[in-house]
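TA notes, week 10

Several of you asked for a full example with nothing omitted. So below is the full record: structure tokens for the whole chain, then the designed sequence directly under it. When grading your own attempts, check the secondary structure regions first.
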């Protein structure tokens, strides 16, 4: 009798466990799963931090919206590694029906593009701006304008600063090479002369060889197109080598890691960044961000917020998976008003409604830079 009772008890436990598992699994399969694959550890962890903060603010904005029950966020650490982000994507795809993936860098987005197209997953990188992504495929959509606009804006700034000879230090990846080339083409077309183009690898901290070559080329200006992991040692070594030139930078100079670890070295750096809006959405986002994190809003976090809100809008209109989200996005012909401004796409998923603006680092922050005429 006791043995029979034990068997019945064991059977009940198995049934309850199975129901719980199926319930949990069905919960994920019935929701729109958004994979936020960002570097949460390592030298580039600041990107993951700001993206997660932006996502969390979006969820906070929607706390009373029924659509929130239809969305599930999955955070995974990409380590800003192309191998790791593929592993993360494939692992999650095997476990859950992923509808949207949000990587950080241009290189990561390019690596995921064929996988997203084959699996009908929307590729929605908040920050990636490399020109190469224009041909990423039908499931690709940007939040930031492409770097071709950034390269032109930087070239104008260097020319208008009366610097006829410039050097470039760039990251040897898709984003760095693309932006460096766009700057070079624009700058030379405007009458400038690029005297040196030196590359470095991701996470490379000894840049003295490249900087020595740049110093020997005697530029009047130096454009730095690298991530914070390389920017901070580069700024220190520029001082060490006595390289006295006007410094310009890519949009990565908005990353707060630079202001935390090397603000004194970055004073006066002029860089390009998508113009920070003053619309209602950004004001609301800024207020929530300040209340939640105790600091001023970060434009990178705002881009992540907009990515989530875009997906939420598509879900509100009936989208349930990557294919239907893609189709809904293509129906947003008048654009979407986000905290980063109006997001309006062309047929390639490129943003055509935003512009780059010049900023200069002063103190522990940056402000709009106005060229003195």
């Amino acid at each position: 009798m006791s043995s029979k009772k034990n068997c019945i008890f064991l059977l009940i436990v198995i049934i309850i466990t199975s129901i719980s598992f199926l319930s949990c699994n069905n919960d994920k399969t019935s929701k729109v799963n958004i994979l936020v694959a960002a570097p949460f550890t390592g030298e580039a962890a600041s990107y993951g931090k700001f993206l997660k903060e932006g996502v969390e603010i979006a969820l906070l904005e929607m706390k009373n919206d029924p659509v929130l029950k239809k969305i599930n966020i999955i955070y995974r650490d990409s380590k800003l590694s192309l191998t790791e982000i593929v592993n993360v994507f494939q692992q999650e795809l095997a476990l859950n029906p992923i509808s949207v993936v949000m990587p950080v860098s241009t290189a990561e987005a390019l690596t995921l593009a064929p996988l997203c197209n084959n699996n009908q997953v929307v590729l929605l990188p908040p920050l990636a701006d490399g020109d190469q992504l224009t041909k990423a495929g039908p499931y690709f959509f940007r939040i930031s304008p492409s770097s071709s606009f950034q390269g032109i804006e930087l070239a104008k700034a260097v020319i208008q600063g009366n610097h006829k000879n410039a050097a470039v230090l760039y990251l040897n990846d898709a984003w760095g090479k693309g932006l460096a080339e766009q700057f070079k083409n624009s700058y030379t077309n405007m009458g400038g002369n690029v005297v040196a183009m030196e590359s470095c690898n991701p996470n490379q901290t000894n840049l003295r060889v490249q900087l020595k070559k740049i110093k020997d080329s005697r530029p009047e200006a130096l454009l730095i197109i690298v991530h914070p992991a390389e920017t901070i040692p580069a700024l220190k070594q520029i001082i060490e080598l006595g390289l006295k030139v006007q410094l310009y930078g890519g949009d990565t100079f908005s990353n707060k890691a630079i202001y935390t670890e090397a603000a004194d070295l970055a004073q006066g750096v002029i860089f390009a960044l998508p113009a920070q809006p003053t619309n209602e959405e950004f004001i609301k986002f800024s207020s929530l961000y300040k209340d939640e994190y105790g600091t001023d809003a970060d434009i990178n976090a705002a881009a992540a917020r907009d990515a989530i809100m875009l997906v939420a809008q598509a879900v509100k209109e009936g989208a349930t998976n990557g294919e239907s989200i893609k189709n809904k996005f293509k129906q947003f012909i008048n654009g979407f008003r986000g905290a980063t401004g109006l997001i309006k796409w062309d047929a390639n998923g490129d943003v055509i409604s935003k512009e780059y603006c010049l900023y200069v680092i002063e103190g522990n922050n940056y402000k709009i830079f106005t060229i003195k005429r």
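The first strand starts at residue 32 and ends at 38. Use that as a sanity check on your answer.
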